[in-house]
Amino acid sequence: MAKKSVASLQTGSKRLTKAIKMVKSPKTGAYMFVESVMAPEFVNDWLNKK
To answer: Residue 35: beta bridge partners?
Structure first.
């Protein structure tokens, strides 16, 4: 039974991508890194927005 429950958990997994971009802080002028985990389809939209 344990093997069957583990196999059923693996079928619901999704492919995710971790995206990291460098953003300049308007307050201090220093650069910081912003990270986000999302589906691969949304990476380009997230990187292009300010």
So the answer is: 20
